[in-house]
Amino acid sequence: MRCGYFDAGACRSCTWLPTPYDDQLAAKQAHAAELLRDHPGIDWLPPVRSRESGFRSKAKMVVGGTVEAPTLGILDEHRHGTDLRECGLHVPALHDALPHLADFVRRARLTPYDVTSRTGELKHLLVTAAPDDALMVRLVLRSTEALPRVRKHLPWLRERLPRLAVASVNLQPRHAAVLEGEVEEVLLGETLAITLGAVTLHLRPQGFFQTNTEVAAALYREAAAWTSALDARSVWDLYCGVGGFALHLAAPGRRVTGVEVAEQAVRAARRSAEEAGAVDVEFVAGDATAWARDRPDPDLVVVNPPRRGLGPELAARIEEGGARALLYSSCHPVSLARDLAAMPSLRPVRARVFDMFPQTAHQEVLVLAERRG
User: Are 146 and 108 in contact, with CB atoms under 8 Å apart?
Assistant: First the structure.
């Protein structure tokens, strides 16, 4: 992949861009295998490849410049906006939407937030594309001052973006390096439907979903394949998000419980389960560690924690419990290795790298561990 922004020094986010893609994959697998070297006998499957470009289904654009000439991209070292509308990582639906969104900023007079002077309203544009090119657009504003203008000009934006399914305003009043705030006002639609084979997931504005939809679909398929022979009658899916693992692992005679702290994600997961007719799938809003503390053990535990990992309390709970197997999806192999070391009764037997983020060192690793003895 070639990138004019990288070559010009305007953006260096893709730190591995000069490295051939096959070498990137090899380095990621070597790194993960080295971190798990204390677990001999793991069957490492070949890494799951991504498109090298055009794979990001989510754009997180800092808005800079002026209302007449807004930039959508990042801030440079002087905190001035650098426009990245032509970024080669975005899927075509995002690439095509960004010029219209820049026009919307001008039309609705959404003054870009200036970090130095702490003035202005529009901080970020967060755009997500579904596999069918439907779009979710979120505007992160400092206050409600511009909200009437957003409402007024939203019909114009819908004309330019006929696949716009969800539009919302997020309020982030603090002067801090925080992407979004807690308050969200939905102006159009409710959820973005993301169909992955036979499973449709619903994403609400504040819900999390993987940035690389194609590789995420491969991750869920692999999880279902690896666990199909386990005869797991009961499953916990901890940190379940919008229900990707839970709904892919659902099967007749199997009880699946997904636990997620974000209420928005739980509501979306429940809708997906209802539409799929998944009667033996339940989603609960709560902290995974607290929820699991006194529950009867399942046959299989699935975890997909944030970068920090499970933490000592939840790792100890799983280690001391009776689950026969653990399926661990990790976005941070360092915390994965630490958690597995804290659960010596569960022996990793299979692992695979899923390349969610080509051109960077980031990686997703899926590990299946089975209880010894």
Answer: yes
CA torsion 167-173-175-180 (nearest 10°) is -30
Nearest Cα to Cα of residue 336 among 37, 22, 6, 46? 37
Q: Is 3 a catalytic residue?
A: no
pLDDT of residue 206: 87
Exposed / middle / buried, residue 282 (Cβ in 10 Å: 0-12, 13-18, 19+) = middle
Residue 255 is predicted with a pLDDT of 97
* Residue ranges, CATH 3.40.50.150, the chain: 4-52+197-371
Tokens of 82: 């650098």
User: Given 3.40.50.2300, 3.40.50.10490, 3.40.920.10, 2.40.50.1070, which CATH number is that of 58-189?
Assistant: 2.40.50.1070
CB atoms under 10 Å from CB of 200, counted, come to 15
pLDDT tens digits, one per residue of 173-211: 998 888 899 999 999 999 999 999 899 999 999 888 899
User: Of residues 3, 14, 240, 331, which has the active-site annotation?
Assistant: 331
What pLDDT was estimated at residue 39? Answer: 96
Point out the residues of the chain with pLDDT beneath 50.
none
> Which residues are registered as beta bridge partners of 43?
350
Give yes or no for a contact between 1 and 7, defined as CB atoms under 8 angstroms apart.
no
The residues of the chain that CATH labels 2.40.50.1070 are 58-189
> Could you tell me which CATH number the domain at 4-52+197-371 has?
3.40.50.150
End-to-end CA distance of the chain: 48
| Strand (E) or helix (H) holding 269 | helix 263-276
